[in-house]
Amino acid sequence: MPDPRFAEIEGHRPYLMRYALAQLRDAQLAEEAVQEALVAALESLASFGGKSTLRTWLTSILRFKVIDLQRRAISDRAHLEPTDFSDEAGDDSWLDDLFAPDGHWRTPLQTWSNPEAAFEQRRFWEVFERCLDKLPPAGGRVFFKREVLGEETDVICKAESITPSNCWVILHRARLGLRECLEKNWFGKDGGGG
């Protein structure tokens, strides 16, 4: 007789699919990651001790499957040229628009009333994904690998053929770009969240 928790595990599939899709931005890869995570969960169900929620446990398994898929994609990808993360014209003047001469933000940070709730909302992830897509390609990749997948800087630098200092500049600029985009499209007055 199948374990009664099978139906409960299967009930988390939509959430896991959204999570994987937000990470991988490819429906087929997301489905593959979710399928692998569910199979792994079923195979190791006896080891689930209930120290966390079932969703947390499943998400943890899925996170490792996503990382595995990302690593496979990185190793399969051709060598990438280093980037200076400037815009298409090589102009960094957009950074000047964000800061006052004294170094403070021109526009104060909006109060993000409940970031945890926003994190779980599908709409937030849709906006986040659009914001991530607006970043220069290298910025989006480096940010995703470091902040979402939790990869170490030296691994990212090797995969992207960049120096550690360039990596930190890319991450800093990606964070600035994401902050600005999320404030305009999610946390701002006309946004859908917080």
TrEMBL record:
NCBIfam families: Sig70_famx1, sigma70-ECF. Belongs to the sigma-70 factor family. ECF subfamily. Residues 9-72 form the RNA polymerase sigma-70 region domain. Gene3D superfamilies: 1.10.1740.10. One of its GO terms (molecular function) is sigma factor activity. It comes from the Bacteria. Keywords: DNA-binding, Sigma factor, Transcription, Transcription regulation. One of its GO terms (biological process) is DNA-templated transcription initiation. This is RNA polymerase sigma-70 region 2 domain-containing protein. The lineage of its organism: Bacteria, Pseudomonadati, Pseudomonadota, Betaproteobacteria, Nitrosomonadales. The keyword Transcription regulation applies. It comes from Usitatibacter rugosus. It holds the Pfam family Sigma70_r2.
